[in-house]
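dumping this here so i dont lose it
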């Protein structure tokens, strides 16, 4: 599969089935994530790969209502970073951008390998920090729900989530997010 095929195949599925998680898989995903560009190669991102049931159960307690589908995750990857671990140039703070690129690489690698890696924002960061023993100075940027796609739609999904499962939600047109040469977008 080439990069374009992987990008087109990537989908934030919510219907998941359990799949074995190996350390080789985790090391593969982590290696690819480190290949993402970052300001002066500072690589501010930190990942906690949570796959043992007792730890997974603790993190699942931090999930928001509406993310019950994630209880079927085989692994949850906590993405952490802190501002001072990356470039700060005047008022430009790169840690979120650089961490996001690393996450994108990890998600594309997971897709290439036949997995679902679905980032979410619906969780209690304090409960996640407590569950994984994270230092206070690190920010939980996202959780990535990881597993294999199950063809049968999970009954926990809302109607909108069911529709998104069947068909990729619409994407913006070029004119809605991009310009040529000068800024052209209306607020």
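and the seq i came up w/
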């Amino acid at each position: 599969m080439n990069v374009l095929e992987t990008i087109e195949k990537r989908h934030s599925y919510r219907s998941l089935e359990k799949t074995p998680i190996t350390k080789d898989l985790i090391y593969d995903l982590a290696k690819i994530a480190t290949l993402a560009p970052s300001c002066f190669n500072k690589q501010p991102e930190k990942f906690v790969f949570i796959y043992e049931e007792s730890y997974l159960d603790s993190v699942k307690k931090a999930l928001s209502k509406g993310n019950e589908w994630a209880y079927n995750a085989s692994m949850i990857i906590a993405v952490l970073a802190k501002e001072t671990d990356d470039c700060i140039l005047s008022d430009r703070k790169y840690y979120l951008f650089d961490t996001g690129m690393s996450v994108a690489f990890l998600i594309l690698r997971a897709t290439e390998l036949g997995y679902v890696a679905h980032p979410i924002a619906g969780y209690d960061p304090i409960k996640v920090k407590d569950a994984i023993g994270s230092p206070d100075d690190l920010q939980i940027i996202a959780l990535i729900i990881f597993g294999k796609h199950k063809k049968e739609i999970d009954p926990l999904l809302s109607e909108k989530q069911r529709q998104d499962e069947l068909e990729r939600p619409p994407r913006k047109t070029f004119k809605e997010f991009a310009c040529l040469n000068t800024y052209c977008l209306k607020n």
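The longest helix spans residues 95-112.
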